Amino acid sequence: MIYLVIGLSILVLALVVYLIRLRVSLRNLSQQIKEMSHENTNQLVRNTSGQKMLNPLINSVNDELRSLREKVVRSNRTNQEIRETLTEISHDLRTPLTAASGYTGMLKDMELTEEEKIRYIGVIEERFETSRTLVDQLFYYTRLESGSLGWNEEKVDIRKVLTTVLAMYYGDFEKKNYEMDVDIEEKVMEVLGDADAVKRVFSNIISNGLSHGEGDFRISLKTEEKSRMYRFTFSNRATNISKEDAPHLFEKYFTKDKVRSSSNTGLGLAIAKNLTEKMHGTCGAELSDNILTIHVELPMA
């Protein structure tokens, strides 16, 4: 009987020691996590006690820490990009608004002819339209980057969307006396995506060409049977960029140097690329003999 009591006593003592060590280990883990919450560190929780039963808990905590840190990094990157975009937009808005303000002041000149007044009013309208486009691109880009943009994935006939967009810009082509050489296959071309996103992709590319291209345009929409992709191409003359510049046109801030203008922040093509990739497609650009060709490929539905 006495041996049983002694054995139980030893077992209880061992259990108490084990529980004490476990409590110390948990306290140590808690202290590590607390310190990490107050410091900007990439360290992970360590098992300093050697208690193997704590390893699953520590691994789970470390997985959550890694996930949280990745989210923080992405959030900081997005916030930095938005701040940079706001800076770029504010700079770009200043130019057309300043010009509009100047022409508004000139309209006060009582000696202006009716023809001059009409011309100045046209310039003011154009500058305000430029400003509206810039603000629209900013809001759209911000929603896209933050993940708050609505997305209705469905089968979309991109041929139908493209013809609608071309009709929408017909007046702009006529105004610049540009000819359109359009080659679109006469059939339904369905992709899986968002109709508004497809429209935005085509619209941004065409608008960019109208703003920065020169001369007539060639537009095509063809089926690539082998790769099961639809390929949209948009070509026109561009003498303000080099062959090396072309692949970078879809970068948000590329246009802040020599190819930048008051009507372009670089967001339009960046948005087009982002939306295309969201629909599992690709965007690209190349320059040959001063002809810039932008192409978009989207997978068949």
Model description:
- About 55% of the residues lie in helices and about 15% in strands.
- With about 300 residues, the protein is an alpha+beta fold.
- The chain folds into three domains: about 1-40; about 75-145, Helix Hairpins (Orthogonal Bundle); about 155-300, Heat Shock Protein 90 (2-Layer Sandwich), CATH 3.30.565.10.
CATH architecture of the largest domain: 2-Layer Sandwich
How would you write the strand order of the largest sheet?
2-4-5-7-6
Radius of gyration: 30 Å
Low-confidence stretches: 255-265
* Multimerization state: single chain
Q: How would a textbook summarize the main sheet?
A: 5 strands, mixed
Q: Can you tell me the overall shape? A: elongated
The N- to C-terminal Cα distance equals 81 Å
Order of helices and strands: HHHEHHEEHEEHEE
The total of helices stands at: 7
Give me the secondary-structure category: alpha+beta
CATH class of the largest domain: Alpha Beta
Strand content: 15-25%
The mean pLDDT is 80
What is the H level of CATH, i.e. the homologous superfamily of the largest domain?
Histidine kinase-like ATPase, C-terminal domain
Number of domains: 3
What helical percentage do the residues reach?
Answer: 55-70%
Number of strands: 7
CATH fold group of the largest domain: Heat Shock Protein 90
